[in-house]
Amino acid sequence: xxxxxxxxxxxxxxxxxxxxxxxxxxxxxxxxxxxxxxxxxxxxxxxxxxxxxxxxxxxxxxxxxxxxxxxxxxxxxxxxxxxxxxxxxxxxxxxxxxxxxxxxxxxxxxxxxxxxxxxxxxxxxxxxxxxxxxxxxxxxxxxxxxxxxxxxxxxxxxxxxxxxxxxxxxxxxxxxxxxxxxxxxxxxxxxxxxxxxxxxxxxxxxxxxxxxxxxxxxxxxxxxxxxxxxxxxxxxxxxxxxxxxxxxxxxxxxxxxxxxxxxxxxxxxxxxxxxxxxxxxxxxxxxxxxxxxxxxxxxxxxxxxxxxxxxxxxxxxxxxxxxxxxxxxxxxxxxxxxxxxxxxxxxxxxxxxxxxxxxxxxxxxxxxxxxxxxxxxxxxxxxxxx
Length: 386
Description:
The protein is α+β, with helices and mostly antiparallel strands. The protein has helices at 4-11, 25-31, 54-67, 88-98, 120-128, 184-187, 223-238, 271-274, 280-289, 373-385; strands at 39-43, 75-84, 102-110, 131-140, 154-162, 165-173, 192-194, 197-205, 208-216, 246-251, 309-311, 316-318, 321-326, 328-336, 353-360.
C-alpha cells in the first residue's frame, strides 16, 4: 500500500522518513518503487470537511443543503492504454473532458526516464482528485540498448482510478506466462523483468458496488496463449456473486491477424493459419464470448469493426482495446484520442480510448439505455436448462 511517506515522496513535497542522509530525492524515489506483482493504493481525493459547530448549522440553514448536487443516476466508464504517459498534462486534459467515474489505464510509467521520472498515474489522480490503485507489472531496466524515448529506470503497470471509495483491492498474478521477459527484452531493445497482473477493485458507487478488472495481456505470443491468460480473469469473474455488476476493461492485445501473421512475435502458434480470414477479436467472439458455458454474462457495447490501435504505418490495425460489461444497461459508447503510429512520442498514445455510460440492470434510472444482450441470452439459456 502507498504509505503516507511514499505518497509524499511521489508528490515531491516531503522527504522520506529514515532515508539515508547522503541520498537525493530521485534515488529515494527509486528505493521506494513497487516491485512487479505489487498492488499499491492512494486516495488523492480531498478529505471531507469535518462537521462543525454553530457556523456550520447556520450555513446549512441558509440553503447549503439545497445547493448540493443531485446523486448521479448513471456511471461513466473509460479505458485507455496511455502508452507510458508521454505528455501527461495533455493526457490529463483529455481525461478531464471525458470526466469518467471509473477510469482504467494501461502502460502507466512510474519513475522512468522516458516520461521524465514522473509518477504518471499519481499525477493523473492528484490533478483530477481521484482514488488510485496501481498494479506493478514490469521493472523497466535502465540500459544503453534503449533509445532515449524508451529509456527505463522505473516501473510500469496498470491503474484503476475512481471518484468513489474502494472496498476491496487485490491483484490476479497471471500463472500463464507465455513469455519470460528476461529473454526477449534485450532482443527488442527493451530489457525488463516482471510479470502480468490484473488488478481487481470493488468500487462503492452511488448506484451500488461495481467489480472492476483492468487487463493488460501479453503481446509477444500467439492468440491461443493470450486467450488462455485471459481465461484466468474469466475464472475469477465467474466466482463473483451473480448479481454483482462487473467491468473487464483494458488492452487485450488482440492483433494477431493481417501482416502480424508474418511475425513470430505476434503470432507464435498454429492460430496464425487457423484464424485466416478473421481478426483476433472475432476469433475471441467465436471461442469465448458466444459460448455461454465459458462467458459468465459479459457483452461488448462497441462495434466489432472499430480500430483502437495502429502500427507499421497503418498496415497493422486492430481492435485491441475493450470494455466488457456484465449486469449493466448502457448508452453513449464513444471512442476518442488521435490514433498514432509507434514512435510518435509527441502524441497522446498509440491507442484510442473507449468510454461508455452505464446503469446497473436493476436500476430505475429514468434515461434511455440499451438492454444487456448477454444477460438476456444467459437468462434464456438458464430457463431452457430448467
